[in-house]
Design brief:
By secondary structure, the protein is α+β, with helices and mostly antiparallel strands. Helices cover 20% and strands 35% of the residues. The chain has 2 helices and 4 strands, in the order E-H-E-H-E-E. The chain has a 4-stranded mixed β-sheet with strand order 1-2-4-3, with helices on one face. Helix 1 links the parallel strand 1 and strand 2. It starts with a strand and ends with a strand. The model has no long low-confidence stretch (mean pLDDT 93).
Length: 94
């Protein structure tokens, strides 16, 4: 099974992230892949959602998950013709 998320993870607080990861874990089958696109800390300014670091992604998915990759990506938006810096992650449930 493959599941995807575009623009959800970065809205969670530090306290909510482990809860989200645990709930997602309980909803996925073993070996399922989860693809996540979230705002990157490399996006300048303060407009929009909070920024996320690779370390924060790794911490949230440290137990029961395998990080396959975290790659630089961009969101296409209506408020920026250049796109918004993001992380695209592939994460597998163990």
């Amino acid at each position: 099974m493959v599941y995807a998320d575009c623009g959800l993870f970065h809205v969670f607080s530090d306290e909510e992230r482990p809860i989200f990861a645990a709930n997602l874990y309980s909803a996925l089958y073993p070996d399922s892949k989860y693809f996540m696109l979230c705002f990157s800390e490399h996006e300048p300014g303060t407009y929009g959602p909070r920024r996320v670091t690779q370390a924060e992604i790794r911490a949230a998915f440290s137990k029961g998950w395998k990080i396959n990759y975290i790659r630089e990506a961009e969101f296409e938006t209506t408020f920026s013709s250049e796109g918004v810096k993001a992380w695209l992650s592939s994460i597998s449930r163990l």
